[in-house]
Design brief:
The chain is α/β, with parallel strands linked by helices. The protein has one domain: Rossmann fold (3-Layer(aba) Sandwich). The protein has 10 helices and 10 strands. Strands 6-7-8-3-9-10 form a 6-stranded mixed beta sheet, with helices on both faces. A 4-stranded antiparallel beta sheet has the order 2-1-4-5, with helices on one face. The N and C termini lie far apart (45 Å).
Length: 260
């Protein structure tokens, strides 16, 4: 399965340089980004930089701004103040197309599993003559070949999330944003999603994952971005974060204390 991923469904590891004169995505940088709703500051002057390679996991208590950060980065929301740049320039449609998002609750079309993938491949501009082959590769990647003609919305939760993952990977993204993709799944389904995350990362896709699960973060993270109160309270390599958190908020969170 790994050979299939590297050779077809995803770009090879290290092969993320953009073709021709396409703009460069890296680094993805937030500079003093704010997001306000109804006079309440939900993201407060956040600055950080994402570069390819290491898997970044975003953690923090409920209401810390984790999902908002992903939506702002993906361009689904616009900052109230501050800037988000891709390769030093404001994001345009060409740049945004190289970012894919998977949410906690799958959003699937009223079509078959194959139909959802066909629609994604057409949307991403894959030539018609290549779509059938690519679709079969993606089905194999998600271990969904036997469900190709089944309506997507009658799949189990784990199957729907695997379909969401491979549909996102159909775009061959350079940046994959994952918003608690296993939050409602059983251990077997969680393991399948984590395997897909690992394979995508090994193929060179930058992973940014929001999770509330410390065990999952320990399994998957290279780096931790810890949010509290709409601010980046701590950024550290995963081992350092879990062994010796520097911020009081992170210490309290890891100890299971309530953060007010």
């Amino acid at each position: 399965m790994h050979d299939l991923v590297r050779s077809a469904a995803l770009p090879e590891s290290g092969a993320l340089s953009t073709p021709g004169n396409a703009p460069v995505i890296w680094p993805v940088a937030l500079r003093d980004v704010c997001f306000t709703v109804g006079g309440k500051m939900l993201i407060d002057r956040m600055s950080l930089q994402l570069t390819p390679g290491r898997r970044s996991v975003i953690m923090g208590p409920n209401g810390a701004g984790k999902s908002l950060l992903l939506r702002l980065t993906a361009g689904l929301l616009q900052p109230t103040a501050g800037k988000i740049t891709f390769g030093g320039q404001a994001a345009d449609d060409a740049l945004r197309r190289r970012v894919a998002v998977v949410f906690q609750r799958p959003v699937l079309l009223r079509r078959s599993v194959a139909g959802n993938l066909n629609h994604a491949l057409a949307t991403y501009g894959v030539p018609r003559r290549e779509r059938a082959g690519r679709r079969e590769e993606l089905l194999a990647l998600g271990q969904l070949e036997h469900l190709a003609e089944r309506p997507a919305r009658v799949l189990s939760g784990g199957e729907q999330q695997r379909l969401s993952m491979i549909r996102a990977l159909a775009a061959k993204p350079e940046l994959l944003l994952l918003d608690e993709p296993t939050a409602s799944l059983d251990p077997q389904a969680t393991a399948a999603i984590e395997d897909l995350i690992g394979q995508a990362s090994a193929a060179g896709v930058k992973i940014v994952l929001v999770t509330h699960d410390s065990g999952q973060a320990r399994r998957l993270a290279d780096d931790i971005l810890f949010l509290h109160g709409g601010k980046l309270a701590e950024s550290a390599p995963a081992d350092s974060f879990f062994d010796n958190p520097q911020s009081a908020a992170a210490q309290a969170y890891l100890e299971g204390r309530l953060l007010l």
